[in-house]
Amino acid sequence: MNTTGFTIIDLFVLIVYLIAVLVAGLYFSKKEMKGKEFFKGDGSVPWYVTSVSIFATMLSPISFLGLAGNSYAGSWILWFAQLGMLIAIPLAIKYVLPIFARMDIDTAYDYLERRYEAKSLRVISAILFIIYQLGRISIIMYLPSVGLATLTGIDINILIILMGVIAIIYSYTGGLKSVLWTDFIQGVILSGGALIALFVLIYDVDGGIGAITQQLAHGKFIAPTEKIFDPNILSSSIFLIVVGSGLTIFSSYASSQDLVQRFTTTQSISKLNKMLFTNGALSLGIATVFLSNWYRIVCLL
Known about the structure:
By secondary structure, the protein is mainly alpha-helical. It has helices spanning 8-27, 36-40, 47-58, 61-73, 85-103, 108-116, 119-152, 156-203, 208-220, 238-255, 257-263, 269-291, 294-300.
């Protein structure tokens, strides 16, 4: 058994996981979805499932691998980007979610057509979103496939096709309801796995959490060269990262159809608010876990 890469047990877990996701997606699609139900669900999905789905949608392999790499290479500077949630969530609750709930829109671009009475604006916006997603999904599919191909020796093209086929099957058969539940399962596994790995690795470190905290206090949380605030907005600073991230996240809440589609599953303002608050807590918490992972521990101690 290979101890430096994927073992037989690792391969078994991967196969079981992929099969489980597919079976779960098909299970929740046993009710035939038609029309708006296919795109908006049938109203039976709990708000917390949708909230975890939003979290899983925003947390791509770009974040998964990027945060770890940044943690290994330097400080926790990217952690402050998650604080943008403190700007984005109140703005979305105040200005965006009430509109979505009141108008009962089908898509983010449905609102544009109604607001400006221009179907062409709806079509152009939808096309631009599709083009953007084609590029984003390409990266999202490619990054984890590179890692798996390196560990397993399986051709990267086969891995990309395999993951794509599984996602297409359950999303096509069950619509948004299947997507929400499979996102929930994957989000729970990802978060739980990261937490378990972190606790195990901290336990193995001499001095435990205290030793890690001491290192963070000596320039590893915020490097000496990093500025908290700079009047020159062209110069990098933590303040600029927080504000820029907040406005970026807010724009996604308002216009990115993959997120807006989750909001359209309910017209209840209280449920929509809970979705965003839960999503914010998950995003900040898991980002902290990722940046506290074994890359940092190995690097520091």
